[in-house]
Amino acid sequence: MKPLAIDLYAGLGGWTDGLLAEGYEVIGFDIERHVYSDHQYPAQLVLQDVLTLHGSQFKDAMLIVASPPCQEFSYMAMPWSRAKQIERDYLSGTRDVKKLTALFDACFRIQREAIEAAGHYIPLVVENVCGAQPWVGRSRWNYGSYHLWGDVPALMPMTVKRELKNGPDTKWRENRCNEENRMVPSGTKNNGGSWFNVAHNTTSDKGNNTVKRIAQEMAGVKGSDGYERDHQTAFGWKKPKTSSHSNARKAASAMIAKIPLTLARHIAKTWYPREL
């Protein structure tokens, strides 16, 4: 019998890919089904708001993993005045910090409820961006730009500097959010804790605008006008003439947020039960 793992905020199933590869049965939970061309969740998916789940449902699970949405944390890491005003609002109490961290906190509530129902310990590993740390506490480890909380193993795989030749996610760059100066793929969340990785001047395309690049490649777009309209709409800058590239942008963001297979397999292997 295969051990059961639960994947919260499952997205495209980065965690699940590694869990399946290591021999788990996996059930994912997400508020929507992500299907982008050939990319989709690879296991059983339950469409349900994670905030409505009770951990007693998972008393038979051997491992819980989660990647709560990071958009608000990411946005506040940006240098824009609007982003900094939102940050000040949270710090001053004008905005409710509990609402900001609700999706993150739900993971640990679910773990506590699952442990109580099971009568034994069930490990939990939660992934989010560097920019989440001021609000939820310092991460226990980071694999490049993927920061981890919860039951993170003492020994973790290291990211290394590599240079590949093909594909949208194969150029590598330095991640300055990591004090140990490791190297991470450019198709991941960026060094400021944001999954946008947007240059200050988005029309000039200075910097490494990863979402823009991948969105264009997935949509077959040449030039930046279509993406620029969609990106501006996402933050309320101005109404676009069309939203034709919104699916491509969502797909790019989902791909960037996907947990690397090396990391997912390591966590899965570490917590694989010795006896079932």
Structure description:
The protein has 276 residues and is α/β, with parallel strands linked by helices. The protein folds into 2 domains: 4-155 and 259-270, 3-Layer(aba) Sandwich (Rossmann fold); 172-256, no CATH class. Helices cover 34% and strands 16% of the residues. The protein contains 10 helices and 11 strands. It has helices at residues 14-21, 71-76, 81-92, 97-100, 102-118, 133-136, 210-219, 225-234, 246-257, 261-270, and strands at 4-8, 25-30, 35-36, 39-40, 44-47, 61-66, 124-128, 141-143, 146-150, 172-174, 183-185. The strands form 3 sheets. It has a 7-stranded mixed β-sheet, sandwiched between helices. Helix 1 (14-21) links the parallel strand 1 (4-8) and strand 2. Helix 1 (14-21) packs across helix 10 and helix 7 crosses helix 9 (246-257). The longest helix is centred in the middle third of the chain and has 17 residues, at 102-118. The chain is globular. The model is unreliable at 167-187 and 190-244 (pLDDT under 50).
